[in-house]
Every structure is written in structure tokens, then in C-alpha cells.
Design brief:
six-stranded mixed beta sheet; alpha+beta; 200 residues; Nuclear Transport Factor 2, Chain: A
């Protein structure tokens, strides 16, 4: 159930067929809700439902998710202290591969879920940082607590981490990546990421 909860939370903003309940809507919450509405249009669009339209549908979903996920910040935080040692080219490739990793792991599962209900509990803003609190009610009547951590850049709110039942997605990947970097090398990490996302 935990694995499914992670997938559900990561793609929360892409699940147009969720029951969505808005208890309180501050600006950060509205950002996620607005992106959700865009995804709803994509998922429900009859012109995009045929199998041959799948690549286009997924591309549109990814482009919409890109509007709110700060891939650079997320990638930077997963590397932690190792980030500053990387060249600009290495950083660029890592950000790209990390984004593809989450896309392949979670976003591609968007059409495999239905029936879950989402309650936007509210948000807390402190300066340029915010936390959006959400509860996911599964078909098994279990409740999953989700926190979206956001950062405001140039007047816009961006997601940089997601916590599921107190477990940070970024911290989880940081631990995995750090183990590889400590035992091997950044080159090896890149090779593993390329293999996972299907790129040579």
C-alpha cells in the first residue's frame, strides 16, 4: 500500500478522476489545484483517449506537471553535498535524468488509479516557503497524509519535495544516490539512471 500511496501522491496533481475536496485554499494550494484542473482536461479529452494518442497524452501531462515541479531544485536536493562538485553539464544531465526517473516511475501510472478521494486540508506559508497539506482516502478506507513542500521563486510557487506519511521523497532518493556515490562514482550513478529510464 505504501508504494501505491507514493505513486498516488506524486501524481496527485495529474489524477483528474479523483474526488477532490477543497477545505482551505491559500495561494500554494491553488497552484496545485489549477494544475490539476489542466490535467483533468487532458485525461478526459475524447480526442486523446485512443491508444495511438498515448504518447501525446503523456507528453501533455508531463508538460503540465513541469509547470509546478521544480526539477532543478528537486535534483539538487537529492544529490545534497555532492551537487556542488558537479560540472554544469553534469548537473544538467542529472536534472534531466531525475525528471525522467520520476516520470517513468510515477507519472506513467496516472491512468492506473481511480476511486481515491483527495482532501486539500490547507497550507502554511512562511516567507518564500510553504507546505500544502493533503489527505488521500483510498478505496480500502485508509488515510494517507501528504505534504507538498513548495518554494516561491520569482513570484511563483514550485513543488520541491513531497512527504508521504512523514517520509520525504527527496530524502529517500538522496539516501539511494548517496550510497552509490560513496561506494562508487557519479559516473556509475548516471549509468544506473540512464538504464532505469531506458536511455543509452
Amino acid at each position: 500500500m505504501k508504494k501505491n500511496a507514493v505513486a498516488i501522491a506524486v501524481i496527485l496533481i495529474t489524477l483528474g478522476f479523483f474526488g477532490i475536496y477543497l477545505v482551505y485554499a491559500g495561494e500554494p494550494t491553488e497552484v496545485i489545484k489549477n494544475v490539476t484542473d489542466k490535467i483533468i482536461e487532458i485525461v478526459k479529452d475524447p480526442a486523446l483517449k485512443s491508444p495511438d494518442k498515448e504518447p501525446k497524452r503523456r507528453r501533455l501531462i508531463r508538460e503540465t506537471v513541469d509547470e509546478v515541479f521544480d526539477w532543478n531544485e528537486m535534483a539538487k536536493r537529492t544529490l545534497g553535498r555532492h551537487w556542488r562538485k558537479r560540472t554544469e553539464e553534469e548537473k544538467k544531465e542529472f536534472v534531466y535524468l531525475f525528471g525522467k526517473l520520476l516520470e517513468r516511475t510515477y507519472l506513467d501510472k496516472v491512468e492506473g488509479y481511480s476511486g481515491e478521494k483527495v482532501i486539500y486540508v490547507g497550507d502554511r506559508v512562511e516567507g518564500n516557503y510553504a507546505i500544502v497539506k493533503v489527505k488521500i482516502l483510498t478505496k480500502q478506507d485508509t488515510e494517507v497524509r501528504v505534504l507538498y513542500r513548495m518554494k516561491k521563486k520569482k513570484g511563483k510557487w514550485w513543488v520541491y519535495d513531497i512527504s508521504i506519511e512523514g517520509v520525504s521523497l527527496i530524502n529517500n532518493y538522496r539516501t539511494q544516490f548517496n550510497n552509490i556515490l560513496v561506494r562508487s562514482s557519479f559516473k556509475r550513478l548516471i549509468e544506473k539512471l540512464r538504464a532505469k529510464v531506458g536511455e543509452s
